Amino acid sequence: MKLAIDCRYLGKSGIGRVCRGILDNLDYAENEYYLVGDPDKLAGYVGARIIPDRSDPFSPKGIASFPKEINKLCDGVLIPNFIIPFGLKIPVYTVVHDLIFLDLPDITTKGRTDYLIKKTLLARCMKKSVKTACVSAFTKSRCEHFFPKYAQKCFVDYIGLSDDVLNFDVSGIRKTNSIVYVGNVKPHKGLKTLVDAFHMLPKGSYKLKIIGEREGFLVGMDERCLRSDDVMFTGRLDDDELLCEIASASYLVQPSLYEGFGLPPLEALCLGTQPIISDIPVFREVYGDLPVEFFRCGDAEDLSKRLMKAPGRVERSDFVKKYNYDSFTKRILKEISHTVQ
């Protein structure tokens, strides 16, 4: 099988990590892989064929300028997102992470035109894809809700823990009185709930570390809530720094209003840190049987009460066998191999 993969997402937050997880778990001797992206970021994948393309996959140019030679070179192309570039004439396989643009358009789109563009791109993804991997049963159910005509194309394929997390040595890391949040600062992430809950705690009991950029923080958020020696924006961290911060924290809090999967709590469990997460449907699906603490979504007082408890002892369990990129990659390749001519 000759398969092209859109690797231009490498280096971007969530989708970039999914892309990296796929690339790290391919057998480059089993199939021919054509990796489309920045050659500098792809240099380590020995045995793959690199097709240079440094365009931004989210930009109009990136959608229009995807290398057309793969139509002659490859049997199919895997896009780790819903944005399918124009000009592809071979079977397309996609990964859908969530449908938040359709479920929460008021806080995730910039007006009617932006909403219609994203809706059109999602509809085009569902129509053009031969198969669509959904990262949770919740995401699959939203695809079925909005695009019932194409529901038979969808299958659940859980993302999970990358090799760097699974192999990270926590033996020399000491716990600190920090609470960490990992992710972007978009409104649906629920950071206002976390900040409000943090200020209900006894002063000086914890430090709150928001691993992300302060610029572009919640629209409408009272900046005075952030003017505290106990609240820190770390900025972007490299992988080792990020994992150290998670492993040394007392809690990782994921206060999201909406997610397609929600990976940081899983990473926290693997690194021995207690997650506290909102009781949204996808978190109940993924984490219902795992040692996490749930709080009522959007309820800062309930979250603060749970932060006042002593964190539980977290040990790695069999969940690593279910949620990992080796399994994710094998499942999607199996679906592709069944349909490639």
Question: Can you describe this structure?
Answer:
- This protein is of the alpha/beta class.
- It has 16 helices and 13 strands.
- It has helices at 14-23, 39-42, 60-64, 70-73, 100-103, 105-108, 112-128, 137-146, 163-166, 191-198, 239-248, 264-270, 281-287, 300-307, 319-322, 325-337; strands at 2-6, 32-37, 49-52, 76-79, 92-96, 129-134, 154-156, 178-182, 207-211, 231-233, 251-254, 274-278, 293-295.
- The strands form 2 sheets. A 7-stranded parallel β-sheet has the order 3-2-1-4-5-6-7, with helices on both faces.
- Strand 2 (32-37), helix 2 (39-42) and strand 3 (49-52) form a beta-alpha-beta unit.
- Helix 10 crosses helix 14 (300-307).
- The longest helix is centred in the middle third of the chain and has 17 residues, at 112-128.
- It starts with a strand and ends with a helix.
- Residues 216-220 have low confidence and may be disordered.
Q: Can you give the helix content as a percent range?
A: 25-40%
| Biggest pleated sheet | 7 strands, parallel
What average pLDDT do the residues reach?
A: 91
Uncertain stretches = 216-220
Q: What is the spatial order of strands in the main beta sheet?
A: 3-2-1-4-5-6-7
